[in-house]
Write a structure and sequence with these properties.
Helix content: 25-40%
Number of helices: 11
Largest sheet: 8 strands, parallel, barrel
Oligomer: single chain
Distance between the termini: 39 Å
CATH superfamily of the largest domain: Phosphoenolpyruvate-binding domains
Number of domains: 2
Strand order of the largest sheet: 1-2-3-4-5-6-7-8
CATH architecture of the largest domain: Alpha-Beta Barrel
Radius of gyration: 20 Å
Number of strands: 8
Order of helices and strands: HEHEHHEHEHEHHEHEEHH
Strand content: 5-15%
CATH class of the largest domain: Alpha Beta
CATH topology of the largest domain: TIM Barrel
Length: about 270
């Protein structure tokens, strides 16, 4: 395991792009995972609205509330990580109006301990990003496959493909990238887009790009921690690489525990008080 000597900040994330060092990010939803990931040297911890699908058992991220994101942010920030802590703004916490968006973004910092917030959307949400940035709350943008737009997109589908089904989609994603950059976002997540388009965006905008299902040319990568550890039962997207089968390890441990309790092999004298 490795640790950082100094706190990771927004300027540090931007510096990493400038020096050509890849940025690493993972989701975290609680204290133990935050501690482990931070001790490994991760750059960014995202308390994502993906908590809905990997922790709460929901089909989409739409049901997540502000209170739930604040709660999970508290757990992660309690670990006092060196990594930059970013909190997802849930569906309808920033779309209903500028004042409400600023207030909710502020809650993630004041009540949850976030150091930045993440919003989904490009041109359509740029004015909201600008307003939040103008009150000194750092914003990470998110374009491409935006999970909160699942119904409009007709499912979790790759965006910006060169096909007749999405005429002008690539151009719109480039416009989205420029828009969030000009609005003041310090970085942008590129999700579910062709890798050549992600490369073009990465080369054309000055802020870091964090890819998820966007190929190897982004300035950094993010994945859901439960996916890379094999903790989810659901089908994993093509872009997910499983680095461990922790679900199998847990299942083996629990099965062994059940067997030993039933057979009388646990607890023994060494597990008992005298």
């Amino acid at each position: 395991m490795q640790t950082r000597a100094t706190k990771v900040t927004v300027p540090e994330i931007q510096r990493l792009k400038a020096v050509g060092q890849k940025i690493t990010a993972l989701t975290a939803y609680d204290y133990p995972f935050a501690r482990i990931l931070d001790e490994c040297g991760i750059d960014i911890l995202l308390v994502g609205d993906s908590v809905a699908t990997v922790v709460q058992g929901m089909e989409t991220t739409l049901p997540v509330t502000m209170e739930e994101i604040v709660y999970h942010l508290r757990l992660v920030s309690r670990a006092k990580p060196r990594a930059l802590v970013v909190g997802d703004m849930p569906f309808l916490s920033y779309q209903a109006g500028i004042c409400e968006a600023i207030a909710n973004a502020g809650r993630l910092l004041k009540e949850g301990g976030a150091e930045a917030v993440k919003l989904e959307g490009g041109v359509n949400i740029a004015r909201v990003i600008k307003a939040i940035v103008n009150v000194d709350i750092p914003v990470m943008a998110h374009i491409g496959l935006t999970p909160q737009s699942v119904h409009r997109m007709g499912g979790f589908k790759v965006q910006g493909k060169k096909s007749g089904r999405q005429p002008g989609a690539r151009e719109r994603l480039l416009e989205d990238a420029y828009a969030v950059c000009e609005a003041g976002a310090f970085a942008v997540v590129l999700e579910g887009i062709p890798m050549d388009l992600a490369q073009e965006i990465t080369e054309k905008i000055p802020i870091p790009t964090i890819g998820i299902g966007a190929g190897p040319y982004c300035d950094g990568q993010i994945l859901v921690i439960h996916d890379i550890l094999g903790l989810t039962e659901r089908f994993a997207p093509k872009f997910v690489k499983r680095y461990a089968d922790v679900r199998g390890v847990i299942a083996h441990a629990v099965s062994t525990y059940i067997s030993e309790v039933r057979s009388g092999a646990f607890p023994l004298d060494e597990h008992s008080f005298h």
